[in-house]
Structure formats: C-alpha cells, structure tokens
C-alpha cells in the first residue's frame, strides 16, 4: 500500500456543544473506531485540511470528536459536510482469510467451472452476512459473501475470486 493512498472513513455531520467539538458520521465498524485514526484529512471539493484527533467518544448514538485547531462552535460548523479521509497505511493488516471491502472491489469473479460472472462492483451489509454485487454489463448478481460456502477462493494478486454459484442465477 502506498503511503499516499487515502480512504474515506466518515463525514463531519454537525457540531457538538460550544467548544468546537464535531459530530461524526462514521463508516468504521464499530463506528467509534474512527477515533483511533489520526491525522484526518478533511476534504470538501478542492479544499483539504489536515487535523489531529485530540479526543472523542460516543455521545448517545453519535460519535463526537475534538480536533486540533477547532476551538469554537462556529469553527466546528464550518467543517460540516467535509469527508474524513485517512492514510490507508494506518489500517491494520487483515488477518489471513479477512479482507477489506475495498480490496475485493474490482476482482473478476468466476465459477469453479471457469464461467466468468463479472466483476465485484460493491458490497452490501445485510445484517446476516455481507453480499457481493457482481456486475457483468447490464446484468447484476448478488452473491452472499460466505467464505467456504459460496466464495471458494480469493487471490488479490491475480485479481480473481472463485465462487460456487449457478451462472444462470
């Protein structure tokens, strides 16, 4: 991974209190894990700001954060709508057999018999299990991301995922 690759992990959604704290909509799981990554690069259009996370936590169902240089409510309000990006080198290496969704997107998908099904376009979180959305032209397939059952192998180096799936389904 390049030290210059950034990924979006959340968004500033509002202000919290009068001392410059911000509310955060987090894409991490659990959502408060976003506070473990610092610095944040805040991005809105062409505007970018780098800030350190000084403090934070859960406040009810919301994640709130205190950021370097943000000292009052007006400054915090000016950040509303900014995306939160982190350098992807801050992420821990996944355990064997675990994958970040971003690593699966773009993989070619074939059946065990070698029939091409398309490419992983994105994933859905359904509660029971994650679901791969495979696109092949205008055709879209939804395959449960259940390793061993439907997903037989993943090779990130070759960009290929092998699945046990009926090509007609």
Average pLDDT confidence is: 94
Which strand order do you get reading across the main beta sheet? 4-3-7-1-2-6-5
Main sheet characteristics: 7 strands, antiparallel
Structural class of the helix and strand makeup?
mainly beta
The CATH architecture of the largest domain can be named as: Beta Barrel
Could you name the CATH homologous superfamily of the largest domain?
RimM
Shape: elongated
Q: In the residues, how many domains can be counted?
A: 2
Output the number of helix runs.
Answer: 2
- Report the count of strand segments: 13
Strand content: over 45%
CATH T-level topology of the largest domain: Elongation Factor Tu (Ef-tu), domain 3
Order of helices and strands: EEEEEEHEHEEEEEE
What's the gyration radius in Å? 19 Å
Head-to-tail CA distance between termini: 36 Å
Helix and strand layout, with pairings?
Elements: E1 6-16, E2 21-26, E3 40-44, E4 47-51, E5 53-59, E6 62-67, H1 73-77, E7 83-87, H2 101-104, E8 108-111, E9 116-125, E10 130-136, E11 139-144, E12 151-155, E13 160-163
Parallel strand pairs: 8-13
Antiparallel strand pairs: 1-2, 1-7, 2-6, 3-4, 3-7, 5-6, 8-9, 9-10, 10-11, 12-13
Structure summary:
The protein is mainly beta and 169 residues long. It has helices spanning 73-77, 101-104; strands at 6-16, 21-26, 40-44, 47-51, 53-59, 62-67, 83-87, 108-111, 116-125, 130-136, 139-144, 151-155, 160-163.
């Amino acid at each position: 991974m390049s030290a210059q690759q950034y990924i979006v992990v959340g968004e500033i959604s509002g202000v919290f209190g009068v001392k410059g704290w911000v509310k955060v909509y987090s894409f991490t799981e659990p959502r408060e894990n976003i506070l473990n990554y610092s610095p944040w690069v805040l991005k809105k259009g062409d505007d970018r700001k780098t800030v350190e996370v000084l403090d934070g936590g859960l406040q009810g169902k919301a994640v709130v954060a205190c950021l370097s240089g943000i000292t009052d409510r007006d400054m915090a309000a000016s950040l509303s709508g900014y995306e939160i990006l982190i350098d992807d080198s801050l992420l821990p290496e996944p355990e064997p057999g675990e994958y970040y969704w971003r690593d699966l997107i773009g993989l070619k998908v074939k059946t065990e018999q070698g029939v091409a099904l398309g490419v992983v376009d994105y994933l859905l979180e359904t509660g029971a299990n994650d679901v791969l959305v495979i696109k092949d032209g205008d055709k879209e397939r939804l395959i449960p991301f259940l390793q061993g059952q439907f997903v037989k192998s993943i090779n990130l180096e070759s960009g290929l995922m092998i699945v046990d799936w009926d090509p007609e389904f």
